[in-house]
Amino acid sequence: MADIMEIRWHARGGQGAKTASLLLAEAAAMEGKYSQGFPDYGPERMGAPMRGFTRISDEPIKVHCAIYSPAIVIVLDDTLLTTVDVASGTPDDGVIIINTIQPADAVRKKLKLDGRKLFTVDATGIAIDEIGRPIPNAPMLGALIKAVGLLSLDTVVDQIKKKFSHGFRPEVLDGNVRAIRRAYEEVKAE
Amino acid sequence: MGRRLILTGNDAAAEAMRQIDPDVVAAFPITPQTELMHKFAQHVADGDVKAEFVLVESEHSAMSATVGAAAAGARAMTATSANGLALMWEIVYIAASSRLPIVMPVVNRALSGPINIHCDHSDTMGCRDSGWLQIYSENAQEVYDNVLQAIRIAEHPDVLLPVMVTFDGFILSHTAEILEGLEDPVVRKWVGDYESKYTLLNTDEPVTYGPLDLQDYYFEHKRQQIEAMRNAPKVVRDVGKAYGEISGRSYDLLEAYELEGATRVIVALGSTAGTAKAVVDEMRAAGEAVGLLKIRCFRPFPEAEIAEKLSRAKAVAVLDRSVSFGAPGGPVHKEIKAALYGTGCDIGLVNYIYGLGGRDVSMDHIRQAFTDLTTIAREGTPSDGVRFLGLRD
Question: Which of A36, A41, A68 sits opposite B362 (nearest CB)?
Answer without folding.
Answer: A68
